[in-house]
Design goal:
Largest sheet: 8 strands, mixed
Structural class: alpha/beta
Number of helices: 10
Shape: elongated
Low-confidence stretches: none
Strand content: 5-15%
């Protein structure tokens, strides 16, 4: 296939590397410096160049803030049957966008960030394919993700954002709260160091990405659960209630079995 990738950031470069040996791939990015280390791939800085390339599939790997804008910049240059796709971690607004476009589409979410995942072994990582996507688009990404040994799940747009609110927003919020009260430790314990490594990795991500994930419409309810459990734990600690603490720990252990 002729595949156009929008954005030469971490994920755009990853997809270019994965696909360029089996497909004819082009990458479009307005910053030429980002494409310095992309090989075996056609490089574009001007959206008008897309017309001659005539892609059959567009993978939008632009920063979440600019996902829809990146699509709009190339829509007029795309063939009628070109499949649009995104890999956005929050799908807010995308379902409505696709409904207005006269193009087949496939929306997916590879749930591994280059910050934390080992890209050489993704067998423990997952990807989500949105149910409402076109059949051919789903087939392409299912084959691609299976080839990367990812665990593939299929959710609706709504189910996706609900899942992300649980699987990303809770650990993100917990990590941010942990980091917000941290100070230098001369003799950090193992658990502290592990938490700190997670916090440093998380905070190396783009601020807008973190913000959008936390602004997921389903995040608030999940974070509220953290607040309620913290309130309960504080009360147990303040009252030095050993029996309640034992019950609390038993409940927590059941959650992670």
């Amino acid at each position: 296939m002729r595949i156009l990738i929008l954005g030469a950031g971490k994920m755009g470069s990853f997809f270019a590397d994965v696909l360029s040996f089996d497909h004819e791939v082009a990458v479009l990015d307005t910053d030429p410096k980002k494409m310095r280390f992309i090989y075996n791939t056609q490089r574009m800085a001007d959206p008008a160049d897309v017309k001659e390339f005539a892609p059959e599939l567009v993978i939008n790997a632009a920063t979440l803030k600019f996902t829809i804008e990146a699509f709009n910049n190339v829509l007029e240059y795309l063939p009628k049957n070109c499949i649009l796709s995104d890999i956005a971690s929050v799908k807010t607004g995308l379902e409505e966008f696709y409904k207005k476009c006269d193009h087949p589409y496939v929306s997916t979410h590879p749930m591994f960030g280059p910050t934390f995942a080992s890209l050489s072994d993704l067998s423990t990582q997952s990807a989500i394919i949105i149910t409402e996507s076109s059949h051919l688009g789903k087939v392409f990404f299912r084959d691609l993700y299976k080839g990367l040994k990812l665990n593939v799940f299929e959710y609706t747009f709504k189910q996706h954002d609900e899942t992300i609110a649980y699987s990303l927003s809770i650990p993100f919020a917990s990590t941010l709260v942990f980091a917000s009260v941290m100070k230098h430790q001369d003799a950090p314990g193992t658990t502290f160091k592990r938490h700190m490594n997670i916090a440093q990795g998380l905070l190396s991500e783009d601020d807008f990405l973190l913000t959008e994930i936390l602004f997921n419409p389903y995040t608030s309810g999940q974070v509220e659960q953290i607040r309620e459990k913290l309130k309960e734990l504080i009360d147990i600690i303040d009252n030095k209630d050993s029996q309640r603490m034992k019950s609390f720990l038993t409940e927590v252990r059941k959650n992670i079995e």
